[in-house]
Amino acid sequence: MARRVMVTRPEPGASATAARLREMGLEAVVLPLTRIEPLAGTVKNAASFDGVVLTSANAVRMASPDLLVVMRELPCHAVGPATGEAARLAGLKVVLESRGDAASLSEDIISRLPRGSRLLYPCGRVRSLSLEDALGDAGIDVTPLEVYDAVAVGYPSSAIREAVADRPFDLALIHSRRGGELLAGIMSRPELGDLFAGTMILSISAKAAAQLANRHVEVAAEPSEPALLALVKAKV
Predict the structure, then answer these.
(1) Which of 1, 39, 136, 157 has its CA 20 to 30 A from that of 232?
(2) What is the rounded distance in angstroms from the CA atom of residue 157 to the CA atom of residue 143?
(3) Cα–Cα distance for residue pair 90/72, rounded to 1 Å
């Protein structure tokens, strides 16, 4: 019987991840713990900025048409290849694809841009402030513009049991800190204890799994989807 993997990231990424898992011969159960919804963030023109910085493909997907017009006028600094690809598909001029995490992106930007540079940062409502803090300390002005929110999807315990036919999860994948926090809440429900008693958590980063420290957690070699899937392959 194929090993069962819980996919917790929001759509459309959840279905893409599930398809890759099924290609490995695994049973993927898609239970997104968040839903990405747009916010009304926008700016009038690009003249106030020297570039745009992206830490998530969701910032591109959720940007309004008017905001995309502005973003296309600016050189784009992307956190990693997946975000860079989403930006290019939307017509942005990608000049940097970093290594998949905010620390690397900050270092790369600081090495390329002078003090006093001004960056537009379309982002999520819930986010780490590490990028803004690091660039601010280096004298690079960052203007955050909240364009999406990751809204928690509530699953009654009965719905989770029905979705998995009472068969436990062998693995659960975590793609974000928000997802890790929500999964920790679900796994702590006494009535679901048998479903997660032997579940191994595979996380895209140590920060993402911070709320699951009491569980069996393995972390990908780098914060990217390919690295996380490579970890899955190594564990099955």
Answers:
(1) 157
(2) 40
(3) 8
Token pair for 129: 């402030």
Residue 179's pLDDT is: 95
Sequence-ordered list of residues with C-beta below 8 angstroms from that of 202, at least 6 positions apart, any chain = 171, 172, 173, 174, 217, 218, 219, 220, 228, 231, 232, 235
Angstrom distance (rounded) from CA 216 to CA 31 = 20
Question: What residues pair up with 77 in beta bridges, in sequence order?
Answer: 53, 96
DSSP strand pairing (141-152 vs 34-38): antiparallel
For residues 150 and 40, is the Cβ–Cβ distance under 8 A? no
Residue 187: domain span: 4-33+153-235
Helices (H), 24-127: 58-61, 65-71, 81-89, 102-112
How many domains is the chain partitioned into structurally?
A: 2
Q: Is the pLDDT of residue 128 over 90?
A: no
> Are 24 and 83 contained in the same domain?
no
Q: Which residues contact 52 (CB under 8 A, 6 or more apart)?
A: 71, 74, 75, 76, 77, 92, 119, 120, 121, 122
Q: Report whether 153 contacts 5 (CB < 8 A).
A: no
Query: Could you tell me if 228 and 212 are in contact, meaning their C-beta atoms sit under 8 angstroms apart?
Result: no
pTM comes to 0.89
